[in-house]
Amino acid sequence: MVTRVLPHDRSSFTQGLELLGGTLYEGTGRYGESVVRALDPDTGRVLGERDLPPALFGEGITVVGNRIWQITWREGVALERDRDSLRELRRVEYDGEGWGLCHDGARLVMSDGGSALTFRDPASFAVTGSVPVVLEGRPVAELNELECAGGQVWANVWGSERIVRIDPGSGQVTAVVDASGLLPRSERAGTDVLNGIAAVPGTDEFLLTGKLWPHVYRVRFVPE
């Protein structure tokens, strides 16, 4: 159920989305166009922005205290940033691709486009574990943007309009959200896939958007 429709920069190839302290943080992708920015969630006004080097394709982001982690697609580089200034503080290398990232309060949770979640130390970015993600006994592949909320991990499934809720302890999918039709067909021209989910703190609502979408939707998930 949509409760509000908010503005979104149509040039943003959204890869990561997180709402904290009244600020919406967004990471975008594409070589030569990737940025991380802080936004006013109600107006879409840019409060701060930093470009990535042209050789880096930005992916998921997450806030950890006064820092922000931002991962990259195929470059195997995670960037740690100052939350207030968005300034890059250091880089850490990792193996494989980077797609989605969230923080559950104790550890980082990362996706790589496969069917597993990888857990990482929020200070060192070192791997601490992993879990395969399954729905009715079958792997759920192409896990993309992630959001940690209420002890669960929510994941966009790339190329689809589905969002899955994952128990990070077992890897079991405990709910599937059908977000088809969220962006009206009349506004689809020039847009890309659904991608971007951010919990609204203190509520049971989420912000959803997509790559190059004109809107961010504030929604509440309800049973069919």
Given helix and strand content, the structural type is mainly beta
- Hey, roughly how much beta strand do the residues contain? over 45%
Question: Any idea what the shape is?
Answer: globular
Can you summarize the main beta sheet? 4 strands, antiparallel
Radius of gyration: 16 Å
Average pLDDT number: 96
Helix-strand pattern: EEEEEEEEEEEEEEEEEEEEEE
Q: How many runs of DSSP E, i.e. beta strands?
A: 22
Estimate the helix proportion, in percent: under 10%
Instruction: Flag low-confidence runs.
Output: none
Tell me the span between the first and last alpha carbons. Answer: 11 Å
Q: How are strands sequenced across the largest beta sheet?
A: 1-22-21-20
Tally the helices: 0
